[in-house]
Amino acid sequence: MPSERSTYDLVIAANRLPVDRVTADDGTVEIRRSPGGLVTAMESVMRDHDGAWVGWAGETGDAPEPFDDGGIHLHPVGLSAEDVAFYYEGFSNDTLWPIYHDVIVPASFHRDWWQAYQRVNQRFAEAVAALAAPGATVWVHDYQLQLVPAMLRRLRPDVRIGWFDHIPFPPVELFAQLPWRSQLLEGLLGADFLGFQRQADARNFVRACRQLLQARTKRDLVHVEGSSRTVRAAAIPISVDFKGLERLAKQPEVMARSAQIRESLGNPKVLMLGVDRLDYTKGIRHRLKAYEELLVEGRFSPPDVTLVQVATPSRERVGAYRTLRGEIEQTVGRINGEYSRIGAPAVHYLHHSYPREEMAALFQAADVMLVTPLRDGMNLVAKEYVTCRHDLGGALVLSEFTGAWHELHQAFACNPHDIEGLKQAMVRAVNTPAKDRQRIMQALRRRVSDHDVQRWAARYLAALRSAPDRPRLEQVADAPAAPDPQAAEASPDPVVAP
Ligand code: ADP
Ligand code: G6P
């Protein structure tokens, strides 16, 4: 049953709702959890807040009626087949996604994609404007909705508008390639407060405003030309629901399932695990290459060592994703053909989505978690892994190119481009004495437990609600540099000496 209310004091807008509606050929409707870290984080935040969530329900055509799920009011926005092709697969995931992730694959630029992006952003802004109570707080999410803040401000100047960037914000040299770069910046500057994963992302945004809009800037503030407004861009790194996930991981059924997983894999001495959307940013090819070389060199061999790679299907109609899937599956086939024995595969490749309980059991079963992205805004999988290791077992191999690494320095760090270095990190993760690994795990867990998603949301909303109504740049220009609370937040705990 949809809730009876017509307006909300807190409205969030994200491209996806937390659940997808999937209609089968026989007309039956199934509700499935949507993929990705944004949904994982915001779903746990919204369970504690009374608010509405505006987003796409995952099917083409007219928007379904609003509905409630898990205590959250969900308000679907409809996308036509052309909107999905041009706005979602095209502009969002074949133009912005590669530009914002270091152009790991080339970006495509099409004017009709841009038209669709504007059109759909306007639709989201109108849906939010209709749902927001007078003076409401509106929290817009991610790269798919960068025009919404300015569009919404025009429709509803009374509401307070925040935007959070779940992915990296690119250096100006890359951002400048976008033919619509000024419009994107102006769209974001419609917000009262802009949140980023890392200080470097916030700085990239401020620099882009200075260089591409000739905006006046001071530290983390950008003056909006032609108005008296100043917008703050700051780092507030996202996190996971530490308490909730730890509770789940401690359930006897989850722990039993974890033991069962190990057993069904033949109780390997070392179980390595990768969990990613099948995305070229995640460094899955680099991880497989390093693993294959360790097998070739005889430093790892099944059944003592095995790798489970969970690769969730993602954006399967976008060319680069189709190509990646082909490459990964070919590589897995080659490795297994060469190094598996009967009953002891070198790589277990799983192209499915699993319930949270199964993911928690997998994390607990894994001796070494491989998180090797070439670029990632945060990577919640890394934080979920350490959250689930209440037994202090396991070791995290973590790419320096993730947001998570800026908080989890104690992990076994790697540069995934450096295959030799990645191999060494994997071997070190296996060979480090258990008591040292436990100390590292304790430090990682402390960081995530002290900086969980509830704290992230509270800090974000406090920063948004306290954003000055009309600050003038001159008023802050000569003030002494205030210590940046985000900087302290983002700096890692000292490494615990073994
Ligand atoms: P991204 O948002 O880029 O996908 P993150 O690591 O930040 O990357 O978040 C991924 C989220 O999706 C995590 O919460 C993770 O547990 C979840 N996830 C990844 N793969 C699966 C899967 N196969 N089944 C269920 N959940 C998954
Ligand atoms: C990342 C993005 C999210 C996105 C998710 C899943 O986490 O930051 O905005 O929802 O990936 O991708 P998808 O394209 O399936 O929504």
Describe what this molecule looks like in 3D.
The chain is of the alpha/beta class. It folds into 2 domains: 8-235, Glycogen Phosphorylase B (Rossmann fold), CATH 3.40.50.2000; 243-450, 3-Layer(aba) Sandwich (Rossmann fold), CATH 3.40.50.2000. It has helices at 37-47, 81-100, 111-131, 148-155, 172-175, 181-188, 199-213, 242-250, 252-264, 284-296, 319-339, 356-365, 380-388, 419-431, 434-450, 453-465, 473-477, 485-490; strands at residues 8-16, 19-23, 29-33, 52-60, 67-69, 72-79, 132-141, 160-164, 193-196, 217-218, 221-223, 230-235, 270-277, 305-312, 347-350, 368-371, 395-399, 412-414. The strands form 3 sheets. It has a 10-stranded mixed sheet, sandwiched between helices. The radius of gyration is 23 Å and the shape is globular. It binds adenosine-5'-diphosphate and 6-O-phosphono-alpha-D-glucopyranose (G6P). 6-O-phosphono-alpha-D-glucopyranose binds at residues 15-16, 35-38, 142, 166-167, 314-315. It comes from Terracoccus luteus.
